[in-house]
Amino acid sequence: MKILIDLDIFKYIPLDIIYKVIVFFVIIIATWIIAIIIDKILKQLLSGTFPAISASIRRVVGIFIWILGSLIALSQVGLNLEILLVVVALAGIGAIISMRHVLENFVAKYFSDAYIPFNKGDVIKVGNYEGEVIEINPVATVLLNEKGEMISIPNSIFMKKISVNLSPAAWKKVTIPIVLSSDINFAEFENLLMKYMFKIKHLLDERFQPILSIKSKSQNFIEASLIFMINDKNKKDIIINQVNTKISEIIETLKKKK
Amino acid sequence: MKRILINTQSPPIRFINYKGPSSAQVDLNFFSPDIDYVISTGGVVRMVLPLLESLINQNYFDEAYWVSLNVNAPEKVSMGKIFLNHVMIPEQVLKNYGLIKEELWKFFHKLEKKEKIIENIWREEFADFIYYNRIVAERIFELDKKLDFDIFYIHDFQQLNIGYMLSSLKPKLFRWHIPFLEEILPQEWRTNLSIYLNSYDGIIVSTKNYLENLKTLGYNGKSFVSYPYIDPKIYKKPEEDIIKEFCSKYDIKYEEKVILCIARLDYAKNQPILVKALKEISKSVDAKVIFVGNGSFSSSKQGLGLSKADLVRSMIMELANELDLKEKVVIAGYLDQKMLNAAYTRADLFVLPSILEGFGLVVVEAWLFKKPVIVSKNAGISELIREGENGYTINPYDYNEIAEKAIELLTNEEKAKRLGEEGYKTARLCTIEEGLKKEIDIISLFL
Questions:
Q1: Are residues B98 and B163 in the same domain?
Q2: Does B188 touch chain A (CB under 8 A)?
Q3: CA dihedral in degrees (B37, B41, B43, B46; nearest 10)?
C-alpha cells in the first residue's frame, strides 16, 4: 500500500529533476570518496613534515575539494554559480591572507635550513630578546631566557632582523640538513660521507667528530643533519659547498647502485 | 604485551660449523647443544641471559629480543621467549670494526696513549665502526616498528653510539662494562662522548668510582652502580676423580703450590707479570702457575678473528723459557666447568694482575671456593677488598709486590684460610640473586 502511494508522488515530479537529484548525490558521494583518497595520499606524503603543518595542508586541501565538489554538484541542479564562485574566490584570498604569516614563517624556515646560523643549544639575540635556543620548528624558534621564560620568535623575523649568536665559537659549528629518499641505504650513505669527512679533517676542528643524526624517518624520506666543526672561519663557505656537493655525489652513487 | 630489546656485540649462542643459509629463521630446539652450538662464555652474555630469563619468569616482560653481531649463524633464532636477531656485516667492514673496537678497548684499559685514540677516531676504519653501529640501530628501529618495545637495553662501550642513532623516545638504558676513568679521556673526545652518553636515560656501571667519573664527565641522566654477578650454584667442589684428572693433565704434583690466574689471553690481563713474580716466589716456595682462559669472541675464529690471544700465549711461554720456568708455567686454555671447578679447588692462591679490569668476576669465583686472592689495584673489584682481611691488592706493574704477598699467603696457611673465609662472605654481593634484584629494580624504574 505504502509503495503505491510513493509511486504516486513520483508521477508528479518531472523525470529530469529526479535525474538531476541523483547526479547531485552521486557527485557528493564521489567528492567524499576523492576527499578521503587525497587525504590519505597527503597523509603519506607529508608524514615526514611537522604535524601541525601536515594537518593544516590536509585541512585546506580537504575544504577545497569539498567546495569544488559542492559547486559541481550544485551546478547539476541548475543553480547559478557565478555569485558563489566570487564568494569562494574571496574566501580563498582571505584564507591566504590570514595564513600569510604561517606561510612566511614556513618559507623562512625552509630557507634558513640551507644555512643555519644557529643550532639548538646556542645562545642568540634577536631584537630585544635573548636566550638559549631550545626548539626550532617550521613556524617559530623557541628561546629560553635566564628568567626561565619561553620566547617564541616567528622564523620570518630571522629574514628581516639581525640575529646574533652569542655562543662562544658558534662560527665553528656547521649543520647541514639532508633529506634522503628512504630507499637509499642510510648506513652506506653515512659510511661514505664519514669517510669523506675524515679525509678533510685538516679543515675540521678535531675536538668534535662529525655526527650524522636522524631527525625524522617516514615511509618516503629520512630527514637528517650532518653536524661538524670547522677550524678556519674564512673557509666556512667553501667547506659547506664542498660537503654539500659530496653529499649530492654520494646520493647519486647510491641511486645508481640500487 | 611487554617486550625488552637487548643489544650486545657478542651473541648468546655461537654456532659450530653452521652451514645453513644466513637468512634462515630457526628454533634452537632443533639444534643440539655442544654439537651444533655452544652458549657464549663471555661475561656480558653470562649476565644478560639469566637476567632475561628472570625478567620473563617474574612477568616483567612477555618476550625479549636480542640483537647481536653473529657471523656464520642463522639470522633469526628463537630460544623459547627469547628471540635472537643476528646482524651480519661485510668481511672488510667487520675487520675494520674489530680493529677500531680493539683500539678503543685498549684505550679504556690504559693500554693506549691519549694521542693515539684521537688519531684512531679520525681514521677511515672508524667509518666502518660507525657503519656497524648504524646497521644495529636500524635493525633495532625496524624491530621496534613491528614489536613496540618498552625499553632498550644496550650493552658495552663499542655500542655506545647506538643510543644516539636510535631515534626513539622510549627508555634507553646502557651498561658500561669496562673501566670508566674520566682522567684518561682526551679533551678532544669529550664532547662526542658526552653527546653519546647523554642519549641514554640511564647508565649502569660496575663500581662507585666509575659512577663518579661518569658524573664528572657531565652525564645528566640517571646513573647506577650494579656489581656484575655470577650464579654460585655453578661453582661447586667437583668429585676427587676430576681433581685428580686435572692434576694429572697439567702435571701438578701433590706438594706443589698452585697459583691460579683465570683471565682472557689479552695484554690488559697482564699475565707475564705473574711469570716474573713466579721467578721470585720459586726462591721460597715450590709453586706452579696455571693460566686458564682463551681468546674472547673478538679473537675467536667464530667471532671477529683477531689474533691477540696467540700473541699473548707466545709472549708468556717465551718469558717462561727465558726465566727457566717452563715446567712451572702452564697455559691450560679454555676449561669446561668441571675442570674449572677442579682448578679452583686445587688452587692455593688466586691472582688477577690486570693492568686495568672493568670488574673481575673471577675473583668472586675464587672467593666462592674460599681461596685467598691477590688483585690488581686497577681492577674494579678492588673496591670490595679490605686489605689483609679478604684479600690483597697490588700494583700490577710491581712483580716484587706480587711475589712478596704470594709468598706470605702460600706459607701462612692460617692467614690464607682466613682471607678465603672472609672473601666467601664478600662474594655474596656479586651473586646472581643480588645482581638480578638490583638490575630488575633499575629496569623497573623506566617501565
A1: yes
A2: yes
A3: 50
Does residue A137 sit in the same domain as residue A69?
no
Residues A152 and A179 in one domain: no
Domain-embedded: residue A193: yes
Residues A14 and A87 both lie in one domain? yes
B122 interfaces chain A, CB cutoff of 8 Å: yes
**Assigned domain for A108 exists:** no
Number of separate domains in chain B? 2
Instruction: Kindly tell me the burial class for residue A74, based on how many C-beta atoms sit within 10 Å of its own C-beta (0-12, 13-18, 19 or more).
Output: middle
- Rg (C-alpha) for chain B, rounded Å, is 22
What pLDDT, on the 0 to 100 scale, is given for residue B327?
Answer: 93
Co-location of B254 and B397 in the same domain: yes
One domain, residues B272 and B212: no
B87 and B37 share one domain: yes
Closest partner CB to B127 (pick from A195, A215, A216): A195
- The end-to-end CA distance of chain A, in Å, is 70
The CA distances from residue B145 to A190, B140, B149, in Å, are 22, 9, 9
Which residues form the domain of A72? 7-98
Q: Which domain holds residue B153?
A: 3-229+432-444
Does B142 touch chain A if contact means CB atoms closer than 8 Å?
no
Same domain, B263 and B284: yes
User: pLDDT-based confidence at B252, cuts 50/70/90?
Assistant: very high
Interface contact B192-A211, CB threshold 8 A:
yes
Interface residue B113 vs chain A (CB under 8 A): no
State the best of B130, B140, B188 to mutate against chain A, taking most chain A CBs within 10 Å.
Answer: B130
CATH of the domain at B333: 3.40.50.2000
Inter-chain contact B189–A209, Cβ cutoff 8 Å? yes
Here the ipTM equals 0.80
Nearest beta carbon to residue A191 from set B131, B141, B195 = B131
Could you report the per-residue pLDDT of B203-229, keeping only the tens digit for each?
999 999 999 999 999 999 999 999 999
Q: Is B141 on the interface with A (CB under 8 A)?
A: yes
d(CA B345, CA B192): 47
For B299-358, the pLDDT digits (tens) are: 555 455 556 788 899 999 999 999 999 999 999 998 988 999 999 999 999 999 999 898
| pLDDT at residue A1, rounded to an integer | 47
Q: Look at A209 and B192 and tell me if their CB atoms are within 8 Å.
A: yes
Residues A179 and A247 in one domain: yes
In tens, the pLDDT along A161-182 reads: 788 888 777 788 898 989 898 8
- What torsion do the CA atoms of B137, B207, B3, B165 make, to the nearest 10 degrees? -20
Chain B residue with Cα closest to A217: B167
* Test mutation, B165, B169, B194, B198, chain A, max A CBs within 10 A: B165
Distance CA B233, CA B243 (A): 18
